[in-house]
Structures are given as structure tokens and as C-alpha cells.
Amino acid sequence: MFDDEEERRREIAVMRAADQEDRLKQAYNELKYTAPDKAADMREQDMLRMQMQMAYRTGDHDTANKLAERLKPDEQKEAEAARRPDN
Question: What is the pTM of this model?
């Protein structure tokens, strides 16, 4: 007996796997060829996150807070600056 629903589920799974592979290839190509600075920036962010975690663990909250501020997205920094009253 032929099961149409099972066959369709397999087709969908194959299509999803192909789509996922395409997205992975696109992301890889973007990092490797079109935005080499992006990969370096991501590595620097990872290093800063590790330093921030170490600072929190050792009780150096001033350094941890400075690193956390540095790691905030630019949009979030701009929004916070806009909310602050001018002195």
C-alpha cells in the first residue's frame, strides 16, 4: 500500500534540509568572501564576552560593566543616550 502522507513528509524533510544547507553555504560565503571584517569582529566580540565573564567571576564589576557597555548593539546605545536628559 502506498502512503501519500509519508511520501510528502519525506519530500518536505528533503526540501528543508536543502534549504538549510543553502543558508549555511550563503552564510559561509558571506563571512569568507564578502565580509572578512565581519568574522574578525565576531571573534573580537567572543573574546570580549569571555573577558566580561571572567571579570564577573573574579568580582571586577567595573571592568565587567565597561565590557558589557562595549558589547551592547549600537542601536541600544543610541536609544539609551536619547533617553538621558542633557546636563
Answer: 0.51
